[in-house]
Amino acid sequence: MTSPTSPGDITTRSVVVAAKDQVSSDLAGEAILLSLRTARYYGLDQVGQRIWELVQQPTLVADVRDAIASEYEVDLERCERDVLDLLRQLLAEGLVEVTG
Amino acid sequence: MTAARFSLAPEEELLLLTAAVSPRETAMRRLVSEGIHWDTFATLVQDANAAPIVVRQLARLDAATTDAGQERMRRLGMLSVMRMLQLEQLLHQTIDALAGRGIEVMLLKGAALASTAYPSFADRPMSDLDLLIRPPDQSEAAWTWLQTRGWTWPSERWERARYTTLHHLPPLIQRPPAGGAGEEFRLEVHSDLLPGGHPFRLSADEVWTQAQRVSRGDRVVLVPHALHRLWHVCVHFAWSHGMRWGAWRSLRDVGTILAGADVAWMPFVELARESRAETCCYWTLRLARRLTEAPVPDDVLDALRPPRPEVILDRLERHYVLNFFSSEAGCPSVLLSNLLWEAGILPRWSGHGSARPWQVDERWAAGAAKPPAQLARPRWARFGRLAAGWRYLRRIQRLSLPRSAA
């Protein structure tokens, strides 16, 4: 895994991907993540699970935002804020990596 | 399936419906709308280790379940998924440790199915890991080596002497790391598929010879051949578990195996015949088809069918289903239950000689149950049991409905 980046480093121009040292499973619309580094569990709600699905491959954050805004019919500005918030939290926990 | 046909409680019927790969939503919705005792249901779900699947199946009903019921199921499901995520990691570490020691390992039972038939480990909850070691005399070395790699043997719980005739060594345990979910993890190191003295003609050597390497993620694991996996599910349920314990899981396993792959049915029938497992395979497949609509072809059931009239098989089927769950509706006598098991499995016709699963009594050996309580009862109490047995048989008879009503 790459060394943790400052959470502030994620922008809509970043490319993010799920970290390697984690495993996850879905449970009826929710995602459960286990960090192999810290042995801690995390739960993601339905929208979080969708974001998690999207970042299984390296993905531009702007594309994640656009997909979520279109699928859940939410305001783009608010969607961007929420997506960035979640990705920053995941980054802080070492669950995603910024690859570009 | 209807509750009237098998006289099951609504919670039991709902649980069995969730074992289907594509459950009948109308039937599930009807049961839920008629009223489910969610605490009772949660206990059944926990006993069956079925939580994540049940959560997904109930989610199909949208808001039909009560908030409290849904929340409890969700919590159970999350706990189970967390455990399985961790157990899978533990499995990988264990396989790596054994490989580093040059010990060859094959996954058995839940671990083999989770790595093949199911999309993920979390989709096939299991209470322990089962590993087959080759050659069998290496199992002792593997078992000892693993005790230097984080696994421990609680010798006071599982005495060594109880495992001399069993197909695996005393279980090893490992506690979840701090913050980990639930109880300890358990590992069984096997030298064979079934306990010593079993009557089946399928040796561990044959299973090793036809074993398959399968890729899961970035890993390759060794599992029994697809036909042997199905065979093992059938025999483990019908013989080792006497068609009583582990019903939900076995029926789900059969349905999932059949949904995910084209089974070579004629070689399977051949294998069942040659290995003396015809009737065990028949009953597991019949029950899976009846209760979960598993796609078992008619001609396969015909080929495996015990030589008894359908009217008898029908009554036996009702008895077996009634006894999936521990309830007052179940068979009141161990002796009668054994006789009815023999009536379906036909051990002598099958070539089993005098071998019976209760002789192995693995459950007792493992300390999971006490010896039958009736041995300590006074003689007069046996008359009461005889009467209860007779009433039970009459009830099985009365439960029979015309085919058109089934």
Describe this structure in words.
The complex is a heterodimer of chains A (100) and B (406). Chain A is of the alpha+beta class. Chain A has a single domain, classed as Alpha-Beta Complex (Outer Surface Protein A, domain 3). Chain A is 38% helix and 25% strand. In chain A, the strands form 2 sheets. Chain A has a 3-stranded antiparallel β-sheet with strand order 5-1-6. In chain A, strands 2-3-4 form a 3-stranded antiparallel β-sheet. In chain A, helix 2 (61-72) packs across helix 3. Chain A is globular, with a radius of gyration of 13 Å. The two termini of chain A are 14 Å apart. Mean pLDDT of chain A is 88; it is low at 1-5. Chain B has 406 residues and is an alpha+beta fold. Among the domains of chain B are: 1-65, no CATH class; 225-406, no CATH class. Helix content of chain B is 52%, strand content 7%. In chain B, helix 2 (10-18) packs antiparallel against helix 3, helix 5 packs across helix 6 (67-100) and helix 10 packs antiparallel against helix 11 (247-260). The relative contact order of chain B is 0.10. Residues 367-376 and 401-406 of chain B have low confidence and may be disordered. The A-B interface holds A 23-25, 27-30, 32, 34, 36, 39-41, 43 and B 52, 55-56, 58-59, 74, 77-78, 81-82, 84-86, 88-89, 120-123, 177-181.
Topology at a glance:
The complex is a heterodimer of chains A (100) and B (406).
Chain A: E1 15-18, E2 22-27, E3 30-35, E4 41-44, H1 46-54, E5 59-60, H2 61-72, H3 76-92, E6 96-98
Helix pairs in contact in A: 2-3
Chain B: H1 3-6, H2 10-18, H3 25-34, H4 38-48, H5 51-59, H6 67-100, E1 104-107, H7 109-114, E2 128-134, H8 138-146, E3 172-174, E4 185-190, H9 204-209, E5 212-216, E6 219-223, H10 226-240, H11 247-260, H12 265-274, H13 278-292, H14 298-304, H15 310-322, H16 334-345, H17 357-360, H18 362-365, H19 379-399
Parallel strand pairs in B: 2-4
Antiparallel strand pairs in B: 1-2, 3-4, 5-6
Helix pairs in contact in B: 2-3, 2-4, 4-6, 5-6, 10-11, 10-13, 11-13, 12-13, 15-16
